[in-house]
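Notes from the 1:1 (GR / supervisor)

We went over the backlog. Supervisor wanted to see one worked example end to end before approving the batch request, so GR pasted a single chain during the call. The sequence is below; no edits were made to it. Supervisor asked that the structure be written out right there so they could see what the output format looks like.
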Amino acid sequence: MQGKVWKFGDNIDTDLIIAARYLNTSEPSELAKYVMEDADPEFVSKMSEGDIIVAGENFGCGSSREHAPIALKAAGVSAIIAPTFARIFYRNAFNMGLPIFELEEAAEINEGDTVRVDMNAGEVINVSQAKTYRFSPIPEFMQELVDAGGLIAFAKKEIAEKA
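Structure output shown during the call:
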């Protein structure tokens, strides 16, 4: 995956990702309209399908709502890179099929840079800066969740294969 970088700081909580006032629906396309609105009101209008969020420490802290990764994925965010993620967000992201990558050097990546992520090799390549960073490859099962589009799609596929 490759995309333009949008930067956010430390401790971006689930209320900043998708504000509670929009949680009267679980429809991904509706949630996507408001993703990151309280952190950057222009985000949805500025970003393009496939863009990548690079954030600071503890991305996704706050409540355990699954709406946050659903909204990000539905808006077209292809991946999130941060030094650390809140544990519940980490698991919810993979369950929803949104790839996230822990990269200690995330702060070195600038907004507007183009980055490419190679999940299998465990590399983030900053095309704009001609720098390559290594991260611990995602466990195989987690990659399978992302490839399938999330836990529910993965389970349906497994059931269909066994039928």
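Supervisor's comment: The longest helix spans residues 151-162.
Batch request approved.
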